[in-house]
C-alpha cells in the first residue's frame, strides 16, 4: 500500500526524517519496498510564461520562445509543440534539471538556435503515458514557482508491504497509530463535523440474516446531492495511492477507506427497491460494476433489496445500483463482514479488491461509525445534500480479547528479557496492559484481530523492543550423528563427464506420450501455467532431449547430460513418486584431435558409463535385450530387471523421436530407478592373492544368434572355482568368417588361492570350456 | 733380455696401442663389446700373446706377467671410460629421438559438472548436517492437510491464496507442495522431540515470469526441543550464513508474518556484493532479504501432536535459487532452468 507522507503527517505530526520513518516501519514489521519522491523528481521545472513566440528560421516545425521564469531575463527556448500561444504559462525544465528517466536538461543548440531549457508535457514530467502537446498551466499560477507545488506533488510516498495479519495497518490512520506510539507523538484527532440529520430524509432499513456473517451494518441516506468531479486535492491523494478517480462519491468512499481502513460502499438510492437485506445468496446472479455476471449460491454473502442482489458483500456492488453522474440520492454503507465470506467469493471470481483485502484481514469495529460519519461529512461538504439518521443493524459493542501469561514466558521464547517500558508503546497502540510481579494481563484492541495467543503478544513485545536486541546463541542440538553421506550415483555420473541439468517436473501431454503409453497413470495439473507444462512427467527423457537440442544448436559437439529427479504416476494405490537418474549422450564420443579421429557416440560408450557408475555403487547388473519399450529403438535397448520390475534401461532413442527434436545423429539415454538400487554392503576385505594368475585365450566361431551373456555364463560354469575373470577380448566378423557367424576371443583369467596353477590344470580347464562351447553353442574353436 | 723379450714386449706394446686406438674409435657399445672380446676375451689377442710366455726364462716370466697386467689394467680403464662415454652418447641420442612438442595439447578427459542448484543444495544440507541436523524428504504431491491446514493456514486464510498453488486432478484434493514446510509436519508426526531436521527439495508455485519460476528449490530447517528460543534461531542462522557465504555476514531480523511461526522474522543479510555500502543489487539499502523464519506456531506443534506447553521450536525456509544467485553472482533466475551447458560448466567450476 502507498502512504503519502503529507497524509500521514496530517494524522501524526512526526518531525523526524523520512528515512527515520522508514526505519521505524521496518523495525515494526512493515516492509518498506521503496520510497518515491515525486516532487523532487521534477525539481528545477519552473512555471514559465511565454513572452514571445516566433518560427524557427531553419525548421518549419520548431518555434523560438522567450520564456519568463522570473529570472534576470527571459530564457530562449526551442520548442516543437504547437498547442501554446503567447502569454501561456507552461512547465519549463531549466538547464541542469533531471527529469524522470534520468534525463538531464542541457544548454543546447537546435538547428543553430540556442535553447536554455525544455517545455514539458505530462509525459516528460512522468505524470502520464501520453500527451498532446505541452502542459498549459492555469493562468493564475505564479511565474518562477515550482511546478511540483502547482501540481500538488507529494514530497514522499512510501510503498509498503503489509503482511496479511495486519489489516489494521492498511490505512493512513492505522499506520499513524503505530508510528505515533513508536515515536511517542500523539495522534492529531480530527474533529469530525457534527452531521445534522434531516428528519425528512428517510433512514434506510437494514435486516441481517445471520450476525456471524455480518456482525454490524451501518447505513445512512443522503438526498439532494449534486455530483461533480472530485476536487484536485482528493484526486491527487487517490492518485498518489495508486487509485484511479471514478466519480465524486466513489472517490470519497475510496478516500475514507484509505484514510480509516473501513471499506465503504454507496448505492444509488433511486435504484434500490425497499429495505436492505444482508443474507446468503440463493441461486441467483448479479451483474457487477465490472459488467461481469456473477452466479451466486449459499456460500456467498450478499446485500439485496426487496427484489434483487445489489452487492456481493465486501467485494463489489451491482452495476444497476451503482452511483453515476446522474445520481442525486445515496445510501452509504459502512459494515463489518466476516473475513471468510468475503475471501471465498473474492478468490472464486478473481475479484480481489481494495475493499475485499481489508475485509479478509479484518476491519476495526471501532471505526465503522467513524468512517460513515467521515464519508457523510465529506460528501455533504463537497456535493451538498441532506442526511438521514444513521441506521445501525447488529451489535456496535464488542468484548476485548484478554490474554494473561507469566512474565517469564517472554524470555523463554525470545531468549532475552524485554524491559517494562515496552508496555507504554503497546498502550499507545491500543493495548491495555496490567502487570504484577509475575504476570502480565493484556486486553487486545478491536483492530488487532491477529493477537489471540500468548505467542502473539510476545511477538508484539519483541517487535516493539526490537529484534536487534535478541542475542545470538547456539543451541545444544541433540545430534543424530549420521555417517557422512555416501557418494550418490549422480556424483559418479558427473565424474564420468556428464553435466547435470534440472528440468521442470511438468511437461506437455505430447512429450509425455513419447515414452509413456499409459495416460491413465498421468498426474495432471488442474491449473497449469500452459499446456506445455500440464502433466507431471513419467520420464525424464523428453526434457533431456529438449536440453540436447538446445545445446547442440549452440555449437556443442558432444552433449552428455544427467538429471536426478522424480517421475510421477497415478496408481491405484495413490500417487507414486519415483526417484530417477537419467542420462543422455548425443553427438560425439570423441572429438577430432591430433591424436584421434572424431567418433560418434554408440551404444557401448553409454553402456560403459552406466556399467562403470553402477559398479562404483557395488551393482553388477545383468542386461537383457528388450525390443518393446516405447520410444526406444529395438535392437539397441537393454534392460536390467529385478523380478518383474525394471531397475534400469539403456537404449538408443527411436529415430522418429530424435528427429522430432531436430537431432540428426544417434541419441542414447539411460534411466536408473534410484529407489530400486539397493544399498550394497561393502564386502569385507579379502587378502590379496599370493600366487600368480594365468590367462588363457580361446577363440571360437559362434553363430550370430548366440548372446555373449550366455556364452560367458557357460565359460564361468565350465571353468569352475579357479576362474577369476572372463571376458571377450576380441570380436571379428569380417573376411574369413562365414556369413551368420562371429569370431569371439574369450580370455580366461585363472588363479588358485593356495598354489601356482600347473600347466596341466590350465589345459584341463581350457579343454572343458572348449567342450562346453561345442556342446551348448556348437562353437568351433579356431 | 733376449731378443725374445724384445719381440714379446714390442708385440705387447703394439697390442696396447692397437686396442686403445680401436676402443676410442668404437661407434657404439655393441662395437666396443666386440673389441673387448677381440683384445681382452678368453680367446682374444692378449691371451694369445700370453701363450708366448712359455718361451721365457723363469726370471723373465714374472716380469713379463707384470707388464701384461699393466697393459690389461690400462686397457680395462680405457674400456670402462669409453663405455661410459658411449653410454652417455647413446642415452643422449635416445633422448633426442624421444623429443616431443610439449606445447601440443594433452589427451584430455571430459569433465562434468553438478548443476549450480545441486551445489547449493548440497552445501546447505551439508552445513546443517554438520551442525547435527538430520536430512529428511517428503512427497511433492501433497495433501492440503500437510501443506496448509497443519501449518495453520486454514482454507479462507489470505496466505493460502497468496501461495499460487498448483492443484492436481484427483478425487482427493491434492496439490504440488508450495513449500518444504510439510516435511516439518511429517517429521514431527513420525518422530519425537528433540527433532533437528533439514529438508531440501523441489516446490511449486503457479507463477511464471522473469523473477518467478513455477518450480524452485527450498530447504526447510527446524529444531523442536524443550526451551528452544529465538536467540538460538538467530545463532543457528548467523552460523549458517557465515559458513555458506564464506565470510562473517551481518544479519538483521525484521518482524514479519507467516501463519506457521509466531513470532516471525524476515532475515536480511548485509549485502554480499557491496558489503552493505549500497549497490544496485540491494537497491542501495545495504541489505538483502534471504529467508523467512520464526518460532513454530503452537497450532502447528499441536497439529503434529506435540505439546506446545512442553516443547518449542524454531523453523526457517531458504530459497535455494536466491542463495545460489547471491553466492555465485548469477543475475537471472531463468539461467537455472535453461540448462545451457556453457552456463552450467561455468558456475560449477
Report how far the terminal alpha carbons of chain B are from each other: 91 Å
Radius of gyration of chain B, whole Å: 44 Å
Number of distinct beta strands of chain A: 43
CATH second-level architecture of the largest domain in chain B? 2-Layer Sandwich
Structure in words:
- The complex is a heterodimer of chains A (782) and B (349).
- By secondary structure, chain A is an alpha+beta fold.
- Chain A is built from 20 helices and 43 strands.
- In chain A, the strands form eleven sheets. In chain A, strands 29, 33, 34, 35, 36, 37, 38 and 39 form an eight-stranded mixed sheet that branches. In chain A, strands 3, 4, 5, 6, 11 and 12 form a six-stranded antiparallel sheet that branches.
- In chain A, a hairpin with a 2-residue loop joins strand 3 and strand 4.
- The relative contact order of chain A is 0.06.
- With 349 residues, chain B is of the alpha+beta class.
- In chain B, a hairpin with a 5-residue loop joins strand 3 and strand 4.
- In chain B, the strands form two sheets. Chain B has a seven-stranded mixed sheet, with helices on both faces.
- Chain B is rod-shaped, with a radius of gyration of 44 Å.
- Chain B has two domains: 95 residues; 231 residues, BirA Bifunctional Protein, domain 2.
Amino acid at each position: 500500500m502507498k502512504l503519502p507522507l503529507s497524509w500521514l503527517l496530517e494524522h501524526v505530526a512526526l518531525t523526524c526524517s523520512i528515512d527515520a520513518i522508514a526505519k521505524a516501519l521496518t523495525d515494526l514489521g512493515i516492509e518498506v519496498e521503496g520510497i518515491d519522491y515525486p516532487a523532487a523528481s521534477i525539481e528545477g521545472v519552473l512555471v514559465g510564461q511565454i513572452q514571445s513566440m516566433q518560427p524557427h528560421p531553419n525548421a518549419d516545425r520548431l518555434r523560438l520562445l522567450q520564456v519568463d521564469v522570473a529570472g534576470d531575463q527571459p530564457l530562449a527556448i526551442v520548442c516543437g509543440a504547437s498547442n501554446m500561444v503567447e502569454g501561456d504559462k507552461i512547465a519549463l525544465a531549466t538547464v541542469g534539471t533531471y527529469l524522470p528517466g534520468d534525463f538531464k536538461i542541457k544548454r543546447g543548440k537546435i538547428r543553430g538556435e540556442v535553447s536554455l531549457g525544455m517545455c514539458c508535457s505530462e509525459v516528460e514530467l512522468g505524470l502520464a503515458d501520453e500527451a498532446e502537446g505541452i502542459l498549459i498551466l492555469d493562468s493564475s499560477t505564479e511565474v518562477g514557482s515550482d511546478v511540483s507545488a502547482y501540481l500538488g506533488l507529494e514530497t514522499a510516498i512510501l510503498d509498503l508491504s503489509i503482511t496479511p495479519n495486519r489489516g489494521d495497518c492498511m490505512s493512513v490512520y492505522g499506520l499513524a497509530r503505530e508510528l505515533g506510539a513508536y515515536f511517542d507523538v500523539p495522534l492529531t484527532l480530527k474533529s469530525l463535523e457534527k452531521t445534522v440529520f434531516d428528519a425528512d430524509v428517510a433512514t434506510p432499513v437494514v435486516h441481517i440474516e445471520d450476525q456471524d456473517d455480518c456482525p454490524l451494518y451501518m447505513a445512512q441516506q443522503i438526498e439532494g446531492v449534486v455530483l461533480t468531479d472530485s476536487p484536485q486535492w482528493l484526486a491527487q491523494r487517490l492518485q498518489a495511492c495508486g487509485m484511479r478517480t471514478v466519480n465524486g462519491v466513489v472517490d470519497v468512499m475510496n478516500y475514507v477507506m484509505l484514510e480509516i481502513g473501513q471499506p465503504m460502499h454507496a448505492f444509488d438510492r433511486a435504484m434500490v427497491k425497499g429495505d436492505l437485506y444482508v443474507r446468503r445468496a440463493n441461486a441467483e446472479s448479479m451483474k457487477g460494476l465490472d459488467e461481469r455476471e456473477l452466479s451466486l449460491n449459499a456460500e456467498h454473502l450478499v446485500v439485496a433489496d426487496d427484489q434483487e442482489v445489489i452487492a456481493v458483500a465486501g467485494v463489489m456492488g451491482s452495476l444497476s445500483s451503482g452511483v453515476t453522474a446522474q445520481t442525486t440520492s445515496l445510501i452509504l454503507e459502512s459494515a463489518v463482514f466476516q473475513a471468510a465470506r468475503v475471501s471465498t467469493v473474492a478468490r472464486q471470481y478473481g475479484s480481489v479488491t481494495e475493499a475485499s483485502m481489508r475485509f479478509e484481514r479484518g476491519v476495526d469495529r471501532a471505526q465503522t461509525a467513524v468512517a460513515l460519519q467521515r464519508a457523510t461529512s465529506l460528501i455533504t461538504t463537497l456535493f451538498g445534500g441532506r442526511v438521514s439518521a444513521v441506521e445501525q443493524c447488529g451489535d456496535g459493542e464488542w468484548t476485548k480479547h484478554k490474554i494473561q501469561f507469566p512474565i517469564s514466558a517472554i524470555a523463554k521464547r525470545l531468549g532475552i528479557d524485554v524491559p517494562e517500558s515496552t508496555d507504554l508503546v503497546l498502550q499507545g497502540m491500543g493495548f491495555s496492559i496490567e502487570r504484577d510481579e509475575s504476570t502480565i494481563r493484556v486486553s487486545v484492541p478491536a483492530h488487532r484481530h491477529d493477537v489471540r495467543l500468548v505467542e502473539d503478544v510476545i511477538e508484539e513485545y519483541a517487535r516493539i523492543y526490537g529484534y536487534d536486541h535478541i542475542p545470538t546463541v547456539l543451541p545444544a542440538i541433540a545430534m543424530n550423528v549420521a555417517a557422512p553421506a555416501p557418494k550418490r550415483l549422480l556424483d559418479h555420473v558427473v565424474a564420468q563427464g556428464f553435466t547435470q541439468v534440472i528440468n521442470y517436473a511438468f511437461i506437455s501431454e505430447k512429450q509425455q506420450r513419447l515414452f509413456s503409453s499409459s495416460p491413465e497413470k498421468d498426474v495432471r495439473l488442474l491449473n497449469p501455467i500452459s499446456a506445455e507444462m500440464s502433466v507431471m512427467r513419467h520420464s525424464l527423457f523428453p526434457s533431456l532431449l529438449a536440453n540436447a537440442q538446445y545445446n547442440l544448436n549452440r555449437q556443442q559437439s558432444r552433449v552428455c547430460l544427467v538429471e536426478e529427479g522424480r517421475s510421477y504416476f497415478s496408481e491405484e494405490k495413490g500417487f507414486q513418486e519415483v526417484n530417477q537418474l537419467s542420462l543422455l549422450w548425443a553427438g560425439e564420443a570423441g572429438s577430432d584431435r591430433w591424436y584421434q579421429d572424431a567418433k560418434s557416440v554408440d551404444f557401448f560408450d553409454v553402456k560403459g558409463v552406466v556399467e562403470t557408475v553402477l559398479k562404483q555403487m557395488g551393482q553388477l547388473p545383468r542386461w537383457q535385450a528388450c525390443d518393446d519399450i516405447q520410444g526406444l529403438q529395438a535392437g539397441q535397448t537393454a534392460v536390467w530387471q529385478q523380478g518383474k520390475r525394471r531397475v534400469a534401461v539403456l537404449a538408443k532413442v527411436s529415430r522418429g523421436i530424435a528427429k522430432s527434436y531436430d537431432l540428426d545423429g544417434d541419441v542414447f539415454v539411460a534411466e536408473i530407478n534410484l529407489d530400486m538400487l539397493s544399498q550394497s554392503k561393502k564386502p569385507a576385505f579379502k587378502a590379496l592373492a599370493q600366487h600368480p594368475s594365468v590367462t588363457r585365450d580361446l577363440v571360437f566361431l559362434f553363430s550370430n544368434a548366440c548372446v555373449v551373456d550366455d556364452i560367458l555364463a557357460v565359460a564361468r560354469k565350465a571353468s569352475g572355482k579357479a576362474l577369476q575373470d572372463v571376458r571377450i577380448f576380441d570380436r571379428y566378423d569380417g573376411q574369413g568368417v562365414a556369413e551368420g557367424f562371429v569370431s569371439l576371443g574369450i580370455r580366461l583369467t585363472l588363479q588358485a588361492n593356495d598354489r601356482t596353477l600347473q600347466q596341466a590344470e590350465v589345459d584341463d580347464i581350457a579343454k572343458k570350456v572348449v567342450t562346453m562351447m561345442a556342446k551348448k553353442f556348437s562353437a568351433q574353436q579356431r | 733380455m733376449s731378443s725374445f723379450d724384445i719381440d714379446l714386449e714390442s708385440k705387447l706394446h703394439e697390442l696396447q696401442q692397437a686396442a686403445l686406438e680401436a676402443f676410442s674409435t668404437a661407434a657404439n657399445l655393441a662395437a666396443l663389446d666386440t673389441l673387448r672380446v677381440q683384445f681382452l676375451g678368453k680367446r682374444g689377442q692378449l691371451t694369445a700373446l700370453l701363450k708366448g710366455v712359455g718361451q721365457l726364462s723363469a726370471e723373465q716370466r714374472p716380469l713379463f706377467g707384470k707388464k701384461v697386467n699393466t697393459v690389461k689394467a690400462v686397457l680395462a680403464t680405457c674400456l670402462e671410460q669409453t663405455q661410459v662415454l658411449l653410454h652417455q652418447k647413446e642415452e643422449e641420442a635416445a633422448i633426442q629421438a624421444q623429443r616431443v612438442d610439449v606445447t601440443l595439447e594433452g589427451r584430455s578427459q571430459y569433465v562434468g559438472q553438478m548443476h549450480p542448484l545441486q551445489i547449493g543444495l548440497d552445501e546447505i544440507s551439508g552445513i546443517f548436517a554438520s551442525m547435527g541436523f538430520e536430512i529428511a524428504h517428503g512427497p511433492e504431491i501433497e495433501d492440503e492437510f500437510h501443506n496448509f491446514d497443519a501449518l495453520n493456514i486454514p482454507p479462507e486464510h489470505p496466505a493460502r491464496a497468496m501461495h499460487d498453488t498448483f492443484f492436481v486432478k484427483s478425487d482427493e484434493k491434492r496439490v504440488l507442495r508450495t513449500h518444504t514446510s510439510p516435511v516439518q509436519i511429517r517429521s514431527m508426526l513420525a518422530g519425537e522431540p528433540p527433532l533437528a531436521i533439514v529438508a531440501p527439495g523441489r516446490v511449486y508455485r503457479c507463477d511464471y515470469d522473469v523473477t518467478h519460476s513455477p518450480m524452485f528449490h527450498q530447504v526447510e530447517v527446524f529444531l523442536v526441543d524443550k526451551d528452544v528460543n529465538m536467540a538460538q534461531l538467530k545463532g543457528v542462522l548467523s552460523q549458517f550464513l557465515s559458513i555458506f557465504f564464506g565470510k562473517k555476514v551481518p544479519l538483521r531480523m525484521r518482524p514479519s508474518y507467516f501463519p506457521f511461526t509466531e513470532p516471525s522474522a524476515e532475515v536480511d543479510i548485509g549485502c554480499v556484493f557491496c558489503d552493505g555500502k549500497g549497490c544496485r543489487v540491494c537497491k542501495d539499502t545495504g541489505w538483502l532479504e534471504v529467508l523467512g523464519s520464526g518460532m513454530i506456531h503452537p497450532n502447528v506443534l499441536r497439529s503434529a501432536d506435540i505439546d506446545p506447553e512442553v516443547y518449542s521450536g524454531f523453523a526457517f525456509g531458504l530459497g535455494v535459487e536466491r542463495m545460489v544467485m547471491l553466492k555465485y553472482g548469477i543475475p537471472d533466475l531463468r539461467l537455472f532452468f535453461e540448462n545451457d551447458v556453457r552456463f552450467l560448466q561455468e558456475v560449477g567450476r
